[in-house]
């Protein structure tokens, strides 16, 4: 296979059901579009249903819209119930939606918004849907992280919700590090079942709406450099789509753009930070996430 993995490399997806969170715009939209073009039944799981419908109208294929607000556990439970009723099997759960560098806000359940949406929301959704994936050979959970998992990133168990002091970048780094640690621990727990893989991806620097909360001075500077540093959303989505569809993918891998700094380029396996591989922290984060969300998974912790 060519080193430059492109949309043309996506295998046939007919008969597969894919749920993509945050799919009304940007990376999620491009991910959904590519999967639908290859024959998948795609669900756009979005907070704004009207924008979701407008996005669905721009995609050719079997596409539906599901209301999902990852900043509300009630919404997540409701969406999971709807999805379970509509889909006896799920092949792909793509945890794409996210917020970045927001001013300090809390979710409906009192969680810091970036940690609550990017990590806890997807943790809960995955746990509530996993029994629809487990019986399906080749099913995958793909969670979108970021190079931001390396920036000021740690899991602050003493102040997970940033109540003592708040850093936009620090909170984002924690959330994106949590995405990776969740993936690695999930894969460890899935491995004995032999059917479902957990994989992570990141888009590099992509031109999407995600950066709308970046401080103005940074946005202005980035605007001048954007043509050199960023890539279109369709390219930024390729690591996610490869993680979801490439038959050569192995559970626990992390995909990102292939250039030296992982900013742009065609997708390939990349390395995550040493901190992301701390198994004790992964397990502690899992336990805390179950406690905070009230969601337990139908799989056991790995032994050894």
Automatic annotation (TrEMBL):
Keywords: Oxidoreductase. Gene3D superfamilies: NAD(P)-binding Rossmann-like Domain. GO terms for molecular function: oxidoreductase activity. InterPro entries: NAD(P)-bd_dom_sf, SDR_fam. The keyword Ribonucleoprotein does not apply. Belongs to the short-chain dehydrogenases/reductases (SDR) family. This is NAD(P)-dependent dehydrogenase (Short-subunit alcohol dehydrogenase family). It comes from Actinoplanes xinjiangensis. The lineage of its organism: Bacteria, Bacillati, Actinomycetota, Actinomycetes, Micromonosporales.
């Amino acid at each position: 296979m060519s080193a430059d993995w492109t949309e043309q490399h996506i295998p046939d997806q007919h008969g597969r059901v894919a749920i993509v969170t945050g799919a009304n715009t940007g990376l999620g939209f491009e991910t959904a579009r590519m999967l639908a073009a290859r024959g998948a039944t795609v669900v756009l799981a979005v907070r704004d249903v009207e924008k979701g419908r407008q996005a669905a109208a721009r995609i050719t294929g079997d596409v539906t819209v599901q209301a999902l607000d990852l900043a509300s556990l009630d919404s997540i439970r409701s969406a999971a119930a709807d999805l379970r009723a509509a889909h006896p099997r799920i092949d792909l759960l793509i945890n794409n939606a996210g917020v970045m560098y927001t001013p300090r806000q809390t979710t409906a359940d009192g969680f810091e918004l970036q940690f609550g949406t990017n990590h806890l929301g997807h943790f809960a959704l995955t746990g509530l849907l996993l029994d629809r994936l487990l019986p399906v050979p080749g099913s995958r959970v793909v969670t979108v992280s970021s190079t931001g998992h390396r920036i000021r990133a740690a899991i602050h168990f003493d102040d997970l919700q940033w109540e003592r002091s708040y850093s936009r970048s620090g909170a984002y780094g924690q959330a994106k590090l949590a995405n990776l640690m969740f993936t690695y621990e999930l894969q460890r727990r899935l491995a004995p079942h032999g059917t479902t893989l957990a994989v992570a991806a990141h888009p590099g620097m992509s031109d999407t709406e995600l950066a709308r909360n970046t401080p103005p001075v940074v946005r202005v500077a980035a605007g001048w450099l954007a043509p050199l540093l960023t890539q279109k959303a369709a390219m930024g989505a390729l690591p996610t789509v490869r993680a979801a569809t490439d038959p050569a993918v192995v559970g626990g891998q992390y995909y990102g753009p292939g250039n030296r700094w992982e900013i742009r380029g065609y997708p390939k396996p990349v390395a995550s930070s040493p901190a992301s591989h701390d198994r004790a922290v992964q397990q502690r984060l899992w336990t805390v996430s179950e406690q905070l969300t009230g969601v337990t998974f139908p799989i056991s912790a790995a032994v050894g």
